[in-house]
Design brief:
By secondary structure, this protein is an alpha+beta fold. The protein has two domains: about 170 residues, Up-down Bundle (Glutathione S-transferase Yfyf (Class Pi), Chain A, domain 2), CATH 1.20.1050; about 130 residues, 60s Ribosomal Protein L30, Chain: A. Helix content is about 65%, strand content about 5%. The chain has a four-stranded mixed sheet with strand order 1-4-2-3. β2, α9 and β3 form a beta-alpha-beta unit.
Length: about 400
């Protein structure tokens, strides 16, 4: 019995020793496999890398050690008079104000330059009309053909007209610069709106930003007005130089012949004829016909292209009408499209009246007496480009 018990104990001891040996071998293998794996690298933040798109708390705090004072204790006037705070938003105020002052200075320079060039244009126009008046007076009284004094005055008038055209090129260049100022102001206004929505500001910061935003909007209005004024000036002077160049051609013929050519159609005032036609009281004004619109127009000329060739079609239509009705009179109506604002509408009206005068000159060149053509003008929302309508009275 004792032999059997000792044998069982020996077997248990042997089994335990074998199990421990196997277990130690397994741990040894796992340690070797773990040792073979490379350790994961730790991410090291690099200078200049943005770790988040959000604003960190330390960015919202001032860079200096001066404490931020609670601005609720100060009035609005005191907040506006104080310097910008050192908050994240407050640090952006001075750069924005510097941008505003820079574009304001540029705009003021451009406006002063425009006023200076415009004064030169008006001075040259005064000299031009004075010279033309002297030539016309001499021609009206009668003179010798090819009078050298008149030839010299004619050259002087042509030079003054060339000066006006040169000044207009300067105004065109200024127009481009002022439009660039408008673009900078629009960008500055957008930046101010975004800055006002940023986190990390105190009331004092918003007071400064709101004041700067008000100044920017005022500057935007001033720039817009100057752009409208320059655009109208360019349109007006371009029409003036074109018409007066044609008038000088007629005057050159008169100087060569030594006598006045009379009151030419190129010198006829569109607005004066319209005003006389609308007045209608004295008997003398009855010679100025009024436009009587009835039915469809005989000819519609759409000036989507300023250099449109309309004379052949207009000549055929007028010729057929006069053949059928020799005593026919015609109504010439300048129709301007309604613009996005009052300034654009006025520009369209000015353009279409110049087109109407061009059509009127064409009618006279066809041999149609000017007294048989009545003038009128209107604006309409039914047209998108300037149009000239010809009606049979």
């Amino acid at each position: 019995m004792k032999k059997i018990a000792s044998g069982m104990i020996y077997k248990y001891i042997t089994l335990i020793i074998v199990s421990l040996a196997i277990a130690s071998c397994g741990l040894q293998g796992e340690r070797e496999e773990i040792a073979d794996l490379e350790p994961l690298p730790e991410e090291q933040p690099q200078d200049g890398d943005e770790t988040s798109i959000l604003i960190d708390d330390d960015q919202m705090l001032p860079t200096s050690d001066d404490p931020i004072v609670d601005d609720r204790e100060f009035s609005r006037a005191e907040q506006l008079e104080s310097d910008p705070s050192g908050t994240f938003v407050g640090q952006k105020i001075n750069p924005l104000r510097e941008d505003f002052e820079a574009v304001t200075e540029a705009f003021l320079v451009h406006r002063v330059s425009y006023e200076e060039v415009k004064s030169r244009v008006y001075g040259a126009s005064t000299e031009f009309y004075g010279t033309v008046a002297a030539i016309s007076t001499k021609l009206q009284l009668g003179t010798t053909p090819g009078n050298p004094v008149l030839v010299r005055q004619y050259d002087q008038a042509q030079g003054e007209l060339d000066n006006i055209e040169e000044y207009m090129r300067e105004i065109n260049l200024l127009n481009q610069k002022v439009n660039a100022d408008a673009g900078v102001v629009a960008l500055l206004k957008s930046t101010l709106n975004k800055t006002l929505r940023l986190a990390g500001a105190i009331d004092q910061d918003h007071r400064h930003l709101e004041l700067l935003e008000d100044d920017t909007e005022k500057l935007e209005i001033d720039i817009s007005r100057l752009i409208n004024e320059i655009t109208e000036e360019i349109s007006r002077q371009s029409g003036f130089t074109k018409i007066e160049n044609q008038n000088l051609l007629v005057m050159a013929v008169a100087i060569r012949n030594g006598e006045s050519m009379g009151t030419g159609i190129l010198n006829r005032s569109f607005l004066a004829a319209q005003a006389l036609a609308d007045a209608g009281a004295p008997d003398e004004q009855l010679d100025v016909p009024k436009v009587k619109i009835s039915g469809l127009p005989l000819v519609v000329i759409r000036f989507d292209d300023p250099d449109i060739d309309y004379e052949k079609t207009l000549f055929d239509a007028i010729g057929v009408t006069v053949d059928k009705k020799p005593g026919a009179t015609f109504g010439l109506v300048a129709v301007a499209p309604i613009g996005k604002n009052d300034g654009e509408t006025r520009i369209n009206s000015s353009k279409v009246k110049k087109y109407a005068e061009r059509v009127l000159r064409s009618l006279v060149s066809f041999g149609l007496p000017s007294k048989k053509v009545a003038l009128s003008a209107k604006t309409s929302g039914d047209v998108v480009v300037p149009e000239v309508h010809i009606y049979v009275q």
